[in-house]
Amino acid sequence: MNFTYKNPTLIEFGKGKIANLKNLIPKDRTILFLYGGGSIKRNGIYEQVIQALQNHSFVEFSGVEPNPTKETLDKAVLFARENNVDFILAVGGGSVIDGSKYIASSFHYDGDGWDILENKYIPKKALDIGVVLTLAATGSESNSGAVITKKQTKEKRFFGSPFTYPSFAILDPDVLKSLDDRQIVNGLIDSFVHVCEQYLTINHGCLVQDRYSEALLLSILELMQTFDKKDDLWYANLMWSANQALNGLIGTGVPQDWATHFIGHELSGLYGIDHARTLAIIQPNLLRELLDEKSQKLLQMGKNVFAMQTDDVNKVIDKIESLYLSLGVNLKLSSYTDDKNIAQKVIELLHKHGFDRFGINRTVSKDTVEKIIKRSL
Amino acid sequence: MNFTYKNPTLIEFGKGKIANLKNLIPKDRTILFLYGGGSIKRNGIYEQVIQALQNHSFVEFSGVEPNPTKETLDKAVLFARENNVDFILAVGGGSVIDGSKYIASSFHYDGDGWDILENKYIPKKALDIGVVLTLAATGSESNSGAVITKKQTKEKRFFGSPFTYPSFAILDPDVLKSLDDRQIVNGLIDSFVHVCEQYLTINHGCLVQDRYSEALLLSILELMQTFDKKDDLWYANLMWSANQALNGLIGTGVPQDWATHFIGHELSGLYGIDHARTLAIIQPNLLRELLDEKSQKLLQMGKNVFAMQTDDVNKVIDKIESLYLSLGVNLKLSSYTDDKNIAQKVIELLHKHGFDRFGINRTVSKDTVEKIIKRSL
């Protein structure tokens, strides 16, 4: 257990907190108000932000896509420079926030921003970012990571930088009420799998990290089971669970295994499948292919999360899969695309991105990926 | 669930991390190297710090007591001013760290530093603080609170300020190996009760906060049960559990009840009893006096922490008490002092400090305190 940890993001959690924007951003800043497809204009969040910023200078950039593309974000970078912006306010979910991190890091870089995603350029500074969260899912509002898509090559890649932690994040659970069930379900699955990627590894004996992960899994499980009884507290619990699932805390000092995400990213890059759905499709089958190395943690999860008295790992995996099915998620890859060469394309992209062997013990080979995809068709 | 949360302290966790001091403190600072009774000279920590600071300017101030007194700390303030100090390095446990917060806040204040403890002066700035932790117990290394004693009046009071979060804290679990059992036991109890004060309140339905608290209680319980099998990982788990128990996270947005601490502080102010031991003495009897209002959470604790299938609250309290006894702690107040007027003196001091009725529903009256003390004799 050896680690460095700091999470500098100020969290403002609760009803009505969007109004605090006026105090959270210094008056002398020129703000890039960044958002997505315009849903914030229908649910009243746009009005709340405009109201809070009435004594601030800002320019608006909208149209950041659900899987934010470098192509769109590069336009935002130019727009930000033209307007001498020195603060980005990201109002949205993971996509808009991730996008803001790309813009903030590219702003001071003369080359192609995609270099950051390919580790050819390491940002040395970034614009300040503030967040008004409108979706509970990715945890991006208080972590430093971002996933960006290159439309031209259908690639989806990750970067992180110590300079891209938002300085503040406003989490008003009321904003979740206008989301449709599909978005809420995606948030539940996304945060559940985020915890799993930091938990279903090896038996390391770090007590707090294991118990914290189980705490979040228990919380999200309860939310899944009470999906039809959503009230104010339900939304607040979802918002805080999703935040904690990926703010860096539960993964400090322990091994992590993001194999499901690596495969999932290629699938949503190739076919535009919702991020959370790619995870729900891949994760159970990945676990089935890695039964031996995952069995110890899976049995622990069965006992401590699902209260199962079993030493059959398959039953624990079936339980995880049944949760996703109970939320109405289609787990058949063939329902999302009629491409006959999914495995081949995924393997090619993974290779291009340097993932020939990955997973906690580097046991996920081309062959393993092929088997996982075959199980998932 | 409505809260503001930020924890700005950088945690450097792991073996050998003390050497990082040289990079964590800017070279142009003049450091007050603050420590306690000199145990760090016997266990090698002093040498590690001196080695790491060989290219820094620093002055030393030692002699901060286990319950740090304003009288000693005021001397440190004068010493710090005389030496134009602009950074405090606290090397110690909760007492030294709490002391550093008093010094950092008083440094810029012309009046009596004790005014801060009496809320007569609210610090508007403070010196920067860095920490090398030598005891796992109070969590003071990454929170903003401090408990200070006034020797003259035997008062022990609390203050907190947004300016007194340490900027960094080095947590090297190896430093715990030189502690005696009494100190380790105190750390286990202190952190266990810290969690309880944020957990044993009312049934609020905030899932993450409840599950996180149970996660820490389960971790500390396991450490108590494996006290005789202390290895590297055991110490690391203790250090991280104690930190998380009071860094502000588990108590965000939920009610807290520090009644046990309020009574405990008066007892250690009056009789010099170790802080943790006052908690172990008082807590079970306080719970017995507040059976009705605590029953829902106690039964939840019985089920989720102790895996007890009972609806008898008393059995859960007995279980808590038995943990403290199993660690060899004497729970009879009469063994620590032969004063016949304990209750009266505690009640008088509580009154002086504004605590005539306290606890989650303000149900802890003079009468309740008297009954709790009587049960504890």
From TrEMBL, chains A, B:
It comes from Campylobacter pinnipediorum subsp. caledonicus. PROSITE patterns: ADH_IRON_2. InterPro entries: ADH_Fe/GldA (IPR001670), ADH_Fe_C (IPR056798), ADH_Fe_CS (IPR018211), BDH-like (IPR044731). GO terms for cellular component: cytosol. Belongs to the iron-containing alcohol dehydrogenase family. This is Iron-containing alcohol dehydrogenase. Keywords: Oxidoreductase. Residues 8-173 form the Alcohol dehydrogenase iron-type/glycerol dehydrogenase GldA domain. PANTHER family: ALCOHOL DEHYDROGENASE YQHD. GO terms for molecular function: alcohol dehydrogenase (NADP+) activity; butanol dehydrogenase (NAD+) activity; metal ion binding; methylglyoxal reductase (NADPH) (acetol producing) activity. The keyword Oxidoreductase applies. Residues 185-376 form the Fe-containing alcohol dehydrogenase-like C-terminal domain. It comes from the Bacteria.
